Amino acid sequence: MLETGMKGRKEIVVTQEKTAKAMGSGTLDVFATPAMIALMENTAFESVAGELEEGSGTVGTALKVKHVAATPVGMKVVCETELVEVDGRALTFSVKAFDEKGLIGEGEHERFIVFNEKFQAKADAKLEK
Q1: What does pTM read for this prediction?
Q2: Is 109 an active-site residue?
Q3: Active-site residue identified among 67, 71, 80, 92
Q4: Is 81 a catalytic residue?
Q5: CA–CA distance, 92 with 110 (Å, rounded to integer)
Q6: In the structure, what pLDDT confidence band is assigned to residue 129 with cuts at 50, 70 and 90?
Q7: N or C terminus: which one in the chain shows less Cβ crowding within 10 Å?
């Protein structure tokens, strides 16, 4: 059962593949904003996945984050999420990321509960002529 207050936590180490230079979001060898966003989405998604009806999943619908500090390759990053609102099938999460020196990003992420097969079929139908 989905309830506000549900928390998620995920830890990664910044690798060369997760840098701004490698991801095309900049020229430096620091943790890329797109990589931080993916970590936030993944942590939120996983935090509620076990409570969803079989055949259901969530998709990201909105994200408002600030990336406030750079993290070098080799440093650990921890993401923490909290489900702060459940409105029908709409879910809102507080998201934060920390490296070993402190806060590096924070914001809000919205996800929506979908029926996987129906959602995939609707997306695939865009390919039909």
Answers
A1: 0.95
A2: no
A3: 67
A4: no
A5: 4
A6: confident
A7: C
